[in-house]
Amino acid sequence: MFKSLFTYGLLLPLAGAMLASCGGKVDLPDDVAAEMSTLAQPIDYTYDVKPILSDRCFACHGPDANHQKAGLRLDIAEVAYEKETDSGLKAIMPGKPGKSELVHRILSADPEVMMPTPESHLSLTAREKAILVKWVDEGAAYKPHWAFTKVEKPELPEVKNESWVKNDIDRFILNKLEEKNISPAPEADKTTLLRRAYLDLTGLPPTPEEVTAFLADQSPKAYEKVIDKLLASPHYGEHMAVSWLDAARYADTHGYQDDGMRTAWPFRDWVIRSFNRNQPYDQFVTWQLAGDMLPNPTRDQMVATGFNRMHQQSQEGGIIPEEYRTAYVTDRVDTFGKTFLGITVECARCHDHKYDPISHKDYYSLYSYFNNNNENGQIPYNGEASPSITLPTPEAEVRLKFIHTRLDKASSEEQQRVAGGDPDFRRWLAAAEAHPEKALLPDSQDLLGHFTFDEPKGKEFRNLADPKHKATSEGDDSLSNVASRPGKIGKARYMYGENAVGFGDKFAFFERNQPFSISIWLNLHDPAVSGSLIHKSNGVMNGYRGWNIFREKDGRIKLTMSHVWPENAIEIQTVEKFPMNKWTQIGFSYDGLSKADGLKLYINGLPAKVVVHNDNLTESILYGKNKTNWYVDKLNIGRLSDQRTKNFEVDELKIYTRPLTSIEMLGLYTLKNELAAAINTPAASRTPAQLNALKEYYFSNMDPESAKYLAERRKLIGEETEILDKEIDVMVMKERKFPRQSFILNRGAYDAPGKPVNPDTPDSFFKIPKNYPKNRLGLARWLLHEDHPLFTRVTVNRFWMMYFGKGLVVSSDDFGNQGELPTHPQLLDYLSATFRQSKWNVKAMQKMIVMSATYRQASSGTQEMRESDPDNRLYARGPSYRMSAEQIRDNALASSSLLTQRIGGKSAYPYQPNGLWEALATRNEVVYKQQHGDSLYRRSLYTVWKRSSPPPMMLNFDAAERHFCITKRQKTSTPLQALVVMNDPQFVEASRVLAQQMFRKGKTLDEQISYAFTALTSRPPSNREMSILKELYEEEYSDFSRNPKRVKEILGVGEYPADKMLNPAQVAAGTIVASTVMNFDEFLIKR
C-alpha cells in the first residue's frame, strides 16, 4: 500500500494557484498553474496522458506483475480507480484531483513521497504535471491503446484546395496542413521526380536517355507510365527485397564464433521473385511463417519458410545444444513480433513486459508456435542444418523424376512377386526339407566381421571373418586388467569411460543403398548413463551422419541412420527400456531402401516394439566421393567424438553385408541354427511364426526375381544419392512428429522450465479464434484476420517509410505504449484498410503512394517550414534523405554502366580489403576469395554477407549487420563515408570507367563533364558547377601530365580494362572529376 501523503482536506504547503473542484482543493505550484492555463480543452488520453504514464510510470506501475510497486497498475482504468492508499484515498478518483493520490504524489516536493521517485532518475515537467492534474479533474477517462484497436476505414476528410489532390492520400495530408494554415510545396521538377521514382522503386538511377525521353513526353499520363514501367522492372523486386532481408536477418553465414557458410541465397531469390510477381502479401507472409504446413507444399513454399531459419546458429564444439536451440526459438519469436506486430515482444522473455500488455506467459505461448521445428541446437560442419530440402537443377530434376518412376515400378513389381510367389516358395521349402545344406546360405555368408573380444594381441582384436580388418583398443590402457572381463562367450571388453574400441578406416562403410546387419551383446550397469553404444558416425559436429545405437537418458534405445540428424534421417526408438545388469543381445538389419520399415531393431533375437520418430532419409550417410570426412568417421564402440559412454561390457560383435531376417537374428540370440530347426520341423508341427519366418528368408535371400527387383531399387537409390550429393540443400521449417512441450522459462533460462504452456496469442491484441489450428499456420491466419489491429498498420507504415524515410508512426518497430503516436492516424488506418481490400496488392499500394501529390512535392520547402517542422512530419514537402548503402554502390556501378543486370544466383565476392576474414575466422572460410569478371559488378544485395565481417563499405553507410531482425536502419553521417566514396576501389574503378565513357561520348570538355555529371545526378551541371569542375579537371590534368606514376596508379585500380585508345592523363583527370561528383549530395541524397 501507499504511505499516504496527507488526509483529505489538508492543503499542500506550496505557494501558487488553487485548483478547485468537487473533489476538494489542490494547491498548484506557480509553474504548473501557468501551464494549466495553456492546455487544450479537453485533455486527450491517447495523445496527452498515455505517453507520460508509459514513459514515467509504467515501469513500476504497469503490466509487469513482478515489478509492480504497491500493487498499483496505472495502465488499467479499473485498477487505478479502485486502488486505495492507507489514508483511504484512491490512486485516481475521476473528477476529484483532491482525492487522488496520484495528483498529490506528482506535485509533492518531498523525496520520501514524490513520484516518480528520485531513485528512478525520472521526473515530470511542469506541463506534464498540469496535464495529469487536468486529466484527473476532467474525469480521468482512459482509452484503449490506439494500435490495439480494430482498423476501421475512416471517411475521407474535407479539403479546400481540391485542385492539389491527386488521390486519397492527399486529402488526409492536406486536411492537416490546412488546419495549421500551411500550404504544401509545389511539385518537384520532372527530372527530380523521375530520379526519385527510379531510386524508390528500383534502387537504381534513370539513364540519361530515360531522362530525355521523360522530359520529352508531355502527355498527362507520362509520369504514370514511368511508374508502371518501374513496377514491372525486375529490379523492383531486388530493391524491395533489401529491407525485407534486413527483417529476415538474411546472411550467407551462420554467425557466432565459427561463422561458417550456409546456403541462404535461394531464400533471397525467392523474396525477389515474390515481389516481382506481386505475390499477394497474405500469401507472402503465410508461406514464410508456415509454408511447410500448407497442403502438398511446393518447393517455393518450403524455401519461403527459411525466413524462420535465417537466425544465427552455432557449429562450435562444447556448446550445450539445448541452450542454443532455445535461443533460435526466441529469435523467431522476437522476429515475428518486430516484423509483423511492430511490438517489442522480446521484453517479455524474462518477465512480464514493463510497458505493453504482454505477459511472460504470452511470450512463451507465442514461443510454443515456433518450438516444434525438428532441429538441433548445434548444427553440423558438413551438410546444411536440419531440416532442409534439396533444390536440384532442372537437369537433375529430370533425372530424379525418371529414377523415381523406375523406383515406383520396381517396388510395385517386387510386391507383386511376393504376393504371387507362394508356389515357388513351397517348391523351395520342399527342396530345403530334403537337402537343407543345398537350400540354405552357410552361416558365414556375407559375414564381414566377427569380433569375440577375447584377450587382445597387444591392442588388437582379431576379426574371425576377415583377419585383414582388425579392431583396436583405443584410449587409456592403464586399466587393461579391468577392461577384460568374463563375457557372454569367453571374454568381453569392459568400457569404463576412458577407453573405446575402434575399427579400421573404411571398414564397414555402408551407404544408404547398401544393406547390412549388426549384432552385438551388451551388459549395461549404470542406469544413469546415456550415450552411444556402437556407431559409425561423426557425432553432433557433423550431424550424426552415419548410423548410431544410442541409449537415451530414460533407458530406451534410439537407432538412427542419418544424413543430417534429426530431420534428414531415419530415427526409431524402443518402447521398452533396455535391460540392465544382464547380457542382452541387440541388433538391427537394414535393407538398403532408405525407409524406416526396412530398418528393423531386435532385442534378444525378437523384433523390438519401436516408435518411428522420423522417416526422411533422402541423402548420403557417408561423405563425398571418398566417403570420408576430415575427421575419420570409423566404426566405434563406447565413444562418439569426444563423448564417452561408460560402465558396460561388449561381446560377440557380428557385421553382415546383407539384411538378416528375423529367424537369423533369433539364432544370433539363441546361439542355435533356428533356420535349420524350422526347416527340420515337420510341416504339421510348424508354427505360423516359423512358416512366415521361412517365407521372409526365402524372398530376402533365395528368390532370384525378388533379388532382381531389390538390386534394381538399391541401384536407383544409389544413383539418386550421387545426384543429390551434387545439389544444394537449404534450411526450411518442418514440424516434429511428436510435438515438444513448451514451458515458461524462468528468467528466460533454457534450463529453468516453469509451468507448461501451449500455443496461444496475447489477449490484448486479438484473441485467436478457437477453430484455428494451434500451429504456425493458425498463427499466420490470426495475423491476417480482419480484426487483427496491428499487422496491416505495421505493414503499410513500413511501406510509407520506404518512400519518406520515416513512417507515419516514426517508431516503426514499436507500436506499443513506448512508441510514438502516428502523425496521421486516419491516413494510417485508411491505407491499412485499403491494402486489405485490394486483396493484399503490394504493387498497388506502392503505386498509390508514389502517384500522390504528397510524394511528388519538391523536397526543398521554405526556410520557415524547415524551422517549424524540421523532420517533415506534416509532409508539407517531399522526401529528402541519403540513399541506402546498397543504393550508393549500385548507383556508382549503374552510372558507369558497370552494373551486372543478372538477377539472382549465388552470392558474389567483389572487392574487399585484404585480411578481414582472416583476422576474424576460426576454422571456416578463413580466406575471402575475390571473384572476377562481371561478378565484381553485381548489385549489392548479392554481395556475400558474413556476419562476423560484413562488407565494410556497406557497414560504413549504416547497413544492418543482420545478427538480429532490423526493420529500421540507423542513419549516420561520418567522415568515413566520404573517404569510402573517394578511395574504395569499387568507386574509383566506377569513376575511371565513367571517365572513359565521357571522353568517348563528348567532343568538348564541356560535353564530357556534362555527360559524367548527368550520368551521376540525372541533370546537367549548372554554369557554376561546370566552371568549378572544369577548373578541377585542368588542375588534375596538369598534374597527371607531369606524373605518369600517379596516372598508372589510378588507372590500375580495378579489373575493368583500360581503354588504350584514350589519353591516360585525361582519363585520370576525368576519374577525379567523376569521383568528386560522386561525393556531391546530389549523388548521395534522394531529393
From TrEMBL:
Signal peptide coordinates: 1-20
Start and end residues of each Cytochrome C Planctomycete-type domain: 57-118
Comp. bias intervals (Basic and acidic residues): 459-473
Region (Disordered): 459-483
Keywords of this entry: Signal
An annotated Gene Ontology molecular function: hydrolase activity, hydrolyzing O-glycosyl compounds
Entry's Gene Ontology BP terms: carbohydrate metabolic process
Domain DUF1549, first and last residues per copy: 169-373
PROSITE patterns in the record: PROKAR_LIPOPROTEIN
Entry superkingdom: Bacteria
Residues in DUF1553 domain copies: 775-1032
PANTHER family recorded: CYCLOINULO-OLIGOSACCHARIDE FRUCTANOTRANSFERASE-RELATED, F-BOX DOMAIN-CONTAINING PROTEIN
Protein name (database record): DUF1553 domain-containing protein
Organism encoding this protein: Dyadobacter sediminis
